[in-house]
Structure formats: structure tokens, C-alpha cells
Amino acid sequence: EQKNICLTSWRIKVMDGNSAIFLEGKRKDRKDQLWHSNAVTERIASNQVRTSSGSVYLLQGRIDVASMRKEGSPYQFIKRFRFGFSTNWKKYVEEFLEERRR
């Protein structure tokens, strides 16, 4: 039974090779230690996703817009995840990664 990993101040990062996205954020149960997930593969709810390792991440609060902007993510992309992962998240990620590969 995989327990949920709760992240605050979460943001979306791109894997090397622009092949997938993963999450970075602070883990509540680890004294706000900065944490990286594996590749996000599935949306369970707007604030809940599963990764390639099978872990389930619970996203608390809104996406960390400031640090994503600082890292150069396009505002349009960030906006789509402002309230978590929508049902269209895969399409958004695909377009975003496509852009980056150019």
C-alpha cells in the first residue's frame, strides 16, 4: 500500500531530454525537505497524481508560479496548472515538451 506523499510549494519540472514532467516541492512529513518525484504518468484528481514509480502525490495549495517563472516556464503553461492537474493535462504537457524540443 503506497502512501500519499504530500507536497507544498509544488512546481512542474521537465526531465532531461524533454521526455516527461516531474514534480518538485516541499515534503510536509520531512520537515519541508525539497523533494523530486519520478515522471508524472497519471492524474487521479486535480490535486493528486501518480508517478512512474507508483507513488501518489497529493498537491497542497497552488502551483508555485514565482519559481516556475524564474526557471523560464511560459506563463500560459503555468496558468493551466494553477488549480492543479486538469483532465487535459497530458495534452498541455505534450505541447509544452514539443515546444521545448524545437
TrEMBL record:
<dbReference type="InterPro" id="IPR015216">
    <property type="entry name" value="SANTA"/>
</dbReference>
<dbReference type="InterPro" id="IPR039110">
    <property type="entry name" value="KNL2-like"/>
</dbReference>
<protein>
    <submittedName>
        <fullName>Mis18-binding protein 1</fullName>
    </submittedName>
</protein>
<dbReference type="Pfam" id="PF09133">
    <property type="entry name" value="SANTA"/>
</dbReference>
<feature type="domain" description="SANTA">
    <location>
        <begin position="5"/>
        <end position="92"/>
    </location>
</feature>
<dbReference type="GO" id="GO:0000775">
    <property type="term" value="C:chromosome, centromeric region"/>
</dbReference>
